[in-house]
Amino acid sequence: MSKTTVVGSVVGVLTVLVFWFQREHQRGTFDVIERHFLSWLAANNSSVEILPPLTLVLYDEEASHTAGTSRMAMLDGALFARAASKLGAVMAGVEGLSGDPARMIQAAEGMPVFAGYLADQPPGLGWTPLGGEPAQSWLEVAGLAGRGGRFTRGFITTPVRLSSAQAIQMVARCGDRSVPSLLLVAWTTAHGWRMSELSIGLHSVGGPDDHIALDATGRAMFMPVGEPSVMTMNELLVAAEKFEREGGVSPLRDRILVLARATPDVTRVTIEGARAVTPMELWASAWEAVRTNRLFLPVGSWYNAALVVLGTLLAFSPARRSNVHALGVLFFAMAVYLLFALAAYSGNRVMLPAAPTLLTCVAGCLLGRFWHEGQMAKKVASS
Fold this sequence. Notes:
The chain is an alpha/beta fold.
């Protein structure tokens, strides 16, 4: 068999394997591996800063009667902000409150407060504007961009599943203005930055010392880990009263609290057989990725071709000569890959998938060994 035929056969086999590995990766077969790998990338990223955890406070009917109202209103927002402030929360967000937020700001006693609204239900004060020109491919939200201020306003969208990961909208456009999502508002406020300090680009949004990479549609991807912390409004009010009366250590100190509707008129959905959740609980699942710097961008389709080339080089490298050589070359290739993966993630938040890459390296080394063993057997037989 000629060398050209051998090379062609190796390339063909590796091409099939690479595309099969990639398909399984998109189906979520390797999710456990990829989650751990993503955590490793985030932990070894020099710019990582762990932000406060988030607790979602679901507004319920019992709390409504306690507040003397039939639906969540600005009075509830003020009660929520006061309780959050007393319990030592670092900031408080609310979903969809209309009206003048002055009472809530006053009740917060200096604690940052912000709000989120559905993309098709703009706030009366207008969206908080961002600097920078929006891309035409970004989501367009209704309403107008207003002015900045102490009560920052962003839009709410729930994550959507893309292959094995999920994507969530981080920025949108409102006419010719860029506007933030509630998630971006929370990220900015947790860092202690003003919205005016953010710089918006086509593929990223960032502050003084950190950034979030965006795809062409203004979204970022994440792999959910665990479920968000959830409590009811009534539980929050009881905890605040108990803490004021008895003192001790606040159970919600240094946390972010977000108040969201959970009355019977809010539809609860079941995701893949899991427990029923509100749309805001799905939204809150993205915060863990945001706060631990585990948002990422997928690698381009060119990576499959790069893996085929890598596997071919390994097949005809010194790895084919013996098992010892194969192990040495394989460990070297894996070390180089980890360095490239860390650099790609630290610089551009691009995640080079772990399982398809490592399996391709192993396949390349094994193909090289099989071919070499076959050649040796032929030589022995001919002699």
